[in-house]
Amino acid sequence: MQVFKTFLKVLKKKLPNALIFIGVFMAIAIAMANSGAETAKYEDYEMKIGIIDRDNSKESKALSEFVLDGNKPVDIADDEDEILDAVYYERAGYILIIKEGFGEKLKNGDLNDLFENYKLPSSVYGTLFDNRLDSYLNSVGAYMSSGLEPTEAMSKAQEAMNVETKVTMKNFEDTGNDDYSENFSYYYKYLAYILISVLITALCPVLLIMNRKEIKARTICSSITASSQTFQIFLGSGGFVLIIWIFFAAAGYILTDGIMNQKVLLAMLNSFIFIIIAAGIAMLIAAFEPSSNVLNMIANVVGLGMSFLCGVFVPQDLLAEGVLTAGKFLPAYWYVKANNMLAGTCGEVFSKSEIFKCFGVEVLYAVALFAVVMLVMRVKRKEA
Amino acid sequence: MGNTIVKIDNLVKRYKELIALDHFSLEIEEGEIFGLLGPNGSGKTTTINCLLSLLAYDKGNIEIFGEKMTPVNYKVKKEIGIIMQNVAVFDELTVYENIDYFCGLYIKDKETRRKYVDEAIAFVGLEDFVKFYPKKLSGGLLRRLNIACGIAHKPKLIILDEPTVAVDPQSRNKILEGIQELNKQGATIIYTSHYMEEVEQICTRIAIMDKGKKIAEGTKDELKRMIKNTETLTIEILDLSDEMLEKIRALNHVYETDYSDSRLEVRFSGGKHNLIHVLNLLQENNVSFSRAYSELPTLNDVFLEITGKALRDKE
Ligand SMILES: Nc1ncnc2c1ncn2[C@@H]1O[C@H](COP(=O)(O)OP(=O)(O)OP(=O)(O)O)[C@@H](O)[C@H]1O
Ligand SMILES: [Mg+2]
Questions:
Q1: Could you tell me the pTM of the whole model?
Q2: pLDDT at B315
Q3: CA A307 from chain center: how many Å?
Q4: B214 and B199 in a common domain
Q5: Which residues does chain B have with pLDDT short of 50?
Q6: CA-CA distance, A158 to B6, in Å (whole number)?
Q7: What would the pLDDT profile of A26-38 be if each residue is shown by its tens digit?
């Protein structure tokens, strides 16, 4: 086991490369676990809303009804100074002015420029409410185009919004602390970046050293068989990958107060498949025998690039269409998607069969990667 | 003696268009220090790599210890020690760990291995550097480490591919003495170099290579006897007329003269007291000279005569 032992010795020298990633990640994870991340959710919040109805039609009344549903009405006169005062002194969190001709425009199917609003630019809830109003209006448009009268469409849309809200709320409850916490989902999402970076910066250099032309040739000259040599290097790599995975799985488990259930197990399985992919990527890079400068560059490009394209840093539902399409061709996309399903974020819902589909795609990537690695190594051997 | 250890038969190795080995044959007997001498690019390393089955060859046959050498002949590989031209050590391991790694590829038993590694360290004189990393070693010490890694398992056949390139004279002597010592202890040695002085100093038999071909083979005396040159005189003369040069050329046994940069070179084939004859002639004609010396033929002369070019560019 001379090759294996030396593999570990060299690994010990190269591990500090990866410790920076592990250290920073663990520091953030620990900090997050202790702060108990709060995210703004519109549904939880009752806002003080003032409505100025300049149209006074059936339709504007329906809109007012929707807006005030679950919120607190505030009386505001139709006067610019008073409006600004009310917003500035936070007498109202949101002021909506329904413009004259709202009903008429709606009837004609024109959804542009229907109202104005005032809110503090820094108001998170105001922004969330804007989004809600937008999707409400979209639904109204959708119902109308299916042939409903504006008022009918509006009540349908309101109904739909309420149902959706409940679904979302249910999901948030689902992901409450005793099932699949938000912390946990963040932890596993960023883990994609960390796993790739750790393996490229620590495993790649070791593979490069063990397979350095002179060392390899010199070792082949000895009485150990070529297959034993390959096996021992494989054993070293596999052992390292396994230990890294166990470390992160255990750390994640501990940091989220030791919650264990089906979703947590699925998240762990997801990360296990992904670390195999990351190992495949590391081996593929090593097979091309880059210099150490190039290797650092590759680590950044692959780690950061894949993470951005696949929604590790930016939620998948906020990514541009083109980026998402590109992301689908990368394994991390499917890892993050599965994780989103587990967390019920980014518009994904938990479905076991869908999650296993993601796992399936990931496994295919892993198999493909290892096939390419073998191919590249064979071609390289022929060249030598 | 008389036991053939290595037998290379009609080896042909092509790199695309280039013929690196051209029907190259060689036989090496047990107990020899066999020198493979040739200029850069003549095919020495290619020969070694084929010998070790690191390279596939196009034609020919190789036998070591009477067995056909193949990439999977581990029994034969076990008995070979190899010191590559390019130093093959781990920068991440210490001197001790490096030797232990390579020794451990052959010797499984821990006790024996520890003993062998210590002996190898003592043999190359690296006792004070066991905890050093290769990056911290001088060129000469690094070469010695490379050698220790190759010989620690006490192989019967030791192959050294230019082990003294870029080595200071002190380390070089230590290495050459070491090789002779290993030979005394019973190992057969193959030694490649483009330094003829080294090869002359230690090798019992020598093959000279050029462009993938063996152009001569024998002991150094045999090789020197092959050529007509028996002595070369070099005399420093500031001013020498053509007429005078003609007179020297007319002397007995002289077959070639060469005057340039105030240096006169006269080559003889046979004859005695050649230096005195030339100096007398110069004195009779009132030609003044400074340094004068006589040299017996070197392997360079052998190479020069056979190929028409020097073994390596004058330094
Ligand atoms: N991998 C290769 N691909 C193509 N040509 C090669 C390769 N290796 C060696 N050669 C060529 O084969 C010839 C013999 O090379 P080789 O390395 O055997 O010479 P050498 O005698 O060991 O020289 P040196 O003293 O420089 O080490 C050279 O012309 C070299 O350019
Ligand atoms: Mg060479």
A1: 0.74
A2: 38
A3: 9
A4: yes
A5: 1, 314-315
A6: 93
A7: 988 888 777 654 4
Considering the domain architecture, whether residues A256 and A122 belong to the same structural domain is answered as no
Q: Burial of A356 by CB count in 10 Å (0-12 exposed, 13-18 middle, 19+ buried)?
A: middle
User: Which residue type does A155 have?
Assistant: S
Instruction: Give the H/E segment covering residue A270.
Output: helix A262-287
Q: Is B35 helix (H, G, I), strand (E, B) or coil?
A: strand
Q: Does A320 touch chain B (CB under 8 A)?
A: no
Cβ <8 Å between A225 and B71: no
pLDDT of the residue at A358: 92
Identify the pLDDT of residue A43: 54
**Domain membership flag for residue A102:** yes
Which residues, numbered 197 to 216 in chain A, qualify as contacts with chain B under a Cβ-Cβ cut-off of 8 Å?
A: 209, 214-215
Rounded to a whole number of angstroms, the distance from the CA of B39 to the nearest CA of chain A is 22
pLDDT at A147: 81
- Per DSSP, the residues of A18-70 read HHHHHHHHHHHHHHHHHHT-----GGG---EEEEEESS-SHHHHHHHHHHHTT
Name the residue facing A6 among B54, B88, B101 (closest C-beta): B101
Contact between A209 and B90 using a beta-carbon 8 Å cutoff: yes
- CATH number of the domain that B262 lies in? 3.30.70.100
Say whether both B136 and B203 belong to one domain. yes
**8 Å CB contact between B37 and B206:** yes
Indicate the residue among A161, A189, A216 that finishes a domain.
Answer: A161
Chain position carrying tokens 């991340």: A37
Q: Give the nearest partner residue to A222 out of B75, B97, B106, using CB atoms.
A: B106
Residues 214-233 of A with CB under 8 A from B: 214-215, 217-226
Does A229 share its domain with A340? yes
Q: Are residues B138 and B265 in the same domain?
A: no
How many domains does chain A divide into? 2
User: Domain ends where: B197, B224, B251?
Assistant: B224
* CB-based contact B28:B5 (threshold 8 Å): yes
Please indicate, yes or no, whether residues A23 and A95 belong to a single structural domain of this protein: no
Q: Do residues A143 and A273 both lie within one domain? A: no
Q: Of A180, A177, A346, which is closest to residue A263 (Cα–Cα)? A: A180
DSSP three-state, residue B214: strand
Is A13 at the interface with chain B, CB within 8 A? yes
Q: Would you put residue A70 in left (φ > 0), alpha (ψ -120 to 50) or beta?
A: left
For residue B183, being part of any structural domain is answered with yes
Q: Do residue A225 and residue A327 come from a single domain? A: yes
CA–CA dist B162, A293 (Å, integer): 31
Domain count, chain B: 2
Is residue A48 within 8 Å of residue A74, measured between CB atoms?
yes
Question: Which of these three, B203, B224, B245, is where a domain ends?
Answer: B224
Q: What is the dihedral of CA B176, B180, B186, B192, to 10 degrees?
A: 50
Q: What pLDDT score was predicted for residue B157?
A: 95
Structure tokens at A264: 């947590």
Is some CB atom of chain B closer than 8 A to the CB atom of A183?
no
Q: Helix, strand, or coil here: B194?
A: coil
Predicted complex ipTM:
0.82
Residues (pLDDT < 70) of chain A are 35-45, 163-180, 347, 383-384
pLDDT of residue A170: 37
Which of chain B's residues have a Cβ under 8 Å away from the Cβ of A13? Answer: 92
Query: A255 and A213, same structural domain?
Result: yes
Kindly state whether residues B142 and B158 are assigned to the same domain. Answer: yes
- For residue B63, the tally of other CB atoms under 10 A from its CB is 16
* Owning domain of residue B166: 4-224
